[in-house]
Amino acid sequence: MMLIGLTGSIGMGKSTIANRFRSFNIPVFNSDEIVHDLYESEAVKLIESAFPETIRNAKVDRDLLSQELMANDNGFEKLQSIVYPLVYKRKYDFINRQFKSGSKMVVLEVPLLFETNCDAKCDVNLVVSASYNIQKARVLQRNKMSVFKFQQIISRQFSDDEKKRRADFIVDTGQSIYNSYAQVDSIIQSLKIRNGIAYNLFWNPEVKQSFTHTFNFSEL
Fold first, then answer.
1. How confident is the model at residue 147 (pLDDT cuts 50, 70, 90)?
2. Cα-based distances in Å from 163 to 10, 67, 128, 129, 159
């Protein structure tokens, strides 16, 4: 099974590219979706103990949590220690389900792939990229987004240039969506003839796994 790490800074088009993989029936693990679910389930009580003012209607209010974290950078480490083990366990279970079901490729869509060293546990890593001006314009169209918040988010990530330097593949999303799709299609074809080794090295359940890894959750 080939494990494909998919990442890129905010506004670069990760979701669009992930959906292209899905159109080929390639399973995608979306870290952000898992976090959203955890904020309404297992993580609520734990986060309430650390950030009691961020809970509304028995779930984590992301806006309040974001305000808390932006006001106090030390809060990130506390949040990381709560959320990351839960996300990692979900990822581990997802990968092993896909292996048992016979999937040939699996995509791990992780915003902070390189920052968390998750790239080292993938066979190949794909970075989605566009120019800064395109990125900024996309992000500022989002609800409740400001220039200040945008700058705060990207300041806690590796630069786009650094991510591209570490990538095995780069998808330029600054052109048409059809151009981006063509790039992904070509990558998929090239990977079909390759064998993955990351699963047996890092995710096989016969190998004892640790869920206490360093993590920076700067896109919350």
1. very high
2. 12, 27, 9, 9, 6
